[in-house]
Design brief:
Layout: E1 8-13, E2 15-16, E3 19-25, E4 32-33, E5 36-38, H1 45-57, E6 60-73, E7 83-94, E8 104-110, H2 112-126, H3 132-137, H4 143-151
């Protein structure tokens, strides 16, 4: 039985040497994204940010700085998952990346120019110029992250 969406999500921006940590999602919604997840039973948004960062990439958050919060219309794989109230954090973290083999297909440390290349691919996908199969095997930015990256002036 599928989980019911709680409509609350967090995203974590971890920068190192002017590169942003991005994961390639193994499950829908497919795309390249900052580590992110639902608040669910984690308690607070901040607790969810710490827990999801550890679950998805094995890092320990040492500092969270709220960058933005907003409701976005975006689908997830959960029942009734058509929108989310997001809180996005800039995170200082310790440890070495150890990605979740269940949640991710891989990770990259992306420069702004590499992020822009992923954004161009997303724009092509949103114009239906990239098939679902091609997107799944080699995605650009997850569409909701594309919106966030524009809003946060990363792209």
């Amino acid at each position: 039985m599928a989980k019911i969406c709680d409509h609350t999500s967090v995203g974590m921006f971890v920068w190192r040497d002017d590169k942003l940590l991005l994961i390639i999602r193994a499950k829908p919604p497919f795309g390249t994204s900052v580590p992110a997840g639902h608040v669910d039973d984690h308690g607070s948004f901040e607790d969810a940010a710490r827990d999801e960062l550890r679950e998805e990439v094995g890092l320990t958050a040492t500092k969270l700085e709220l960058l933005a919060e907003y409701r976005k219309e975006n689908k997830c794989r959960r029942d009734d998952g058509s929108w989310h109230y997001w809180k996005m954090y800039r995170v200082e973290a310790t440890g070495e990346v150890s990605r979740s083999l269940d949640e991710t297909k891989g990770y990259i440390w992306a420069s702004r120019s590499e992020i822009k290349e992923l954004a161009v691919k997303t724009e092509r996908y949103l114009r239906n110029e990239i098939s679902e199969d091609d997107w799944k095997s080699s995605p650009g930015l997850e569409p909701v992250m594309y919106e966030w990256f524009k809003q946060l002036k990363i792209i």
